[in-house]
Amino acid sequence: MATFHLFPQLPTELRLAIWHLCLPHRVVELDYQREDLLFGAKRPCAKNAALTDANTRIPALSRVNREARGVALESWQPHPEPLSDSPELADWASGIIPVPRVDSHRTQFVHLNWAPAQDIDADWPADGDPLRYAMWVADQMPGSEISLDASLLEDVQYNSIHSEKHPWTREELQDLMRRRKSFTVVVQEPIFIHGDFHRVAQTGLWGLLGDAPVQIVHADEEARLNSFVELGREEGMKLSSDPFKNPLKDRLQELSDTVMAVFGSDENAPRLVPAFMFRYCPHNCASN
């Protein structure tokens, strides 16, 4: 890659603007994925939890020079913590992954991996209200979207009775979700791409410096969706699953059926936008 030797001579305002463009737009995951429930014994990535951790680190821009580090740090704020007098938020937040800092201005999605079926195991936090917490976090980050796994709604679709493992009845969930105009819903298990980091960084799909390893793509973003899939199909890269292998219309129909079962009709539901999650791992750990 050619070096632009005149960069230090640019006006300060222009240099700062360029540094800002290098900052990643990230998905803030509020919890680790339950890989045993998602994938069973054959897991497509041995370092999936490490990807969640890597996605919380300070942007790579901070390691360029002092000026770039100042830009990276200026909006890198402590992750919001709910007040102790809001137990439905604080209790659940205390049991999930610690996210020390976050760029509240460049968070595209606040993502909740949790679904009621995951509370079957005693080591998973069951206290509090995970969805209410996700909505509260998103409210602290202007412009961010809330993303959910489809299994959350599907679980409520087939289990409408309130229990210790379900924070709400179906009616309570309806009332809660109607407080927002829309949610993004990841309609299938995460798609992993393994391969050379330099090739991935060149694409800009995971940030201009390759430091946003978790990305969510709406199903109607055809060009961007194709870019991820084509990268995974390149020689030397590995794609864990192909979102086009099974007709997308089938997954969209499943989501529509779930909406009808949970809310009764589209008119009674917030807008639910189908999406896919892509996760990049630079290690040669793909098992398929």
How would you summarize this macromolecular structure in one to three sentences?
This protein has 288 residues and is of the alpha/beta class. It has eleven helices and ten strands.
Structure explained in plain terms:
This protein has about 290 residues and is of the alpha/beta class. It has one domain (about 25-60, about 80-280). The protein is built from 11 helices and 10 strands. It has helices at about 10-20, 35-40, 50-55, 65-75, 85-95, 130-140, 150-160, 170-175, 195-205, 220-235, 250-265; strands spanning about 25-30, 75-80, 100-105, 105-110, 145-150, 180-185, 190-195, 215-220, 240, 270-280. The strands form 2 sheets. Strands 1, 4, 5, 6, 7, 8, 9 and 10 form an 8-stranded mixed β-sheet that branches. Helix 5 (about 85-95) crosses helix 6 (about 130-140) and helix 7 crosses helix 11. The longest helix has 16 residues, at about 250-265. The radius of gyration is 20 Å and the shape is globular. The model has no long low-confidence stretch (mean pLDDT about 85).
Point out poorly predicted stretches: none
In terms of DSSP E residues, the strand content is 15-25%
Q: Identify the quaternary structure here.
A: single chain
User: What number of structural domains do the residues give?
Assistant: 1
Binned, the helix content reads: 25-40%
Distance between the termini: 33 Å
Structural class: alpha/beta
Average pLDDT across residues?
A: 84
Principal-axis shape equals: globular
Q: How would you sum up the major sheet?
A: 8 strands, mixed
- Tell me the total number of β-strands: 10
Helix-strand pattern, N to C? HEHHHEHEEHEHHEEHEHEHE
Protein name: 2EXR domain-containing protein
Pfam families: 2EXR
Organism: Diplogelasinospora grovesii
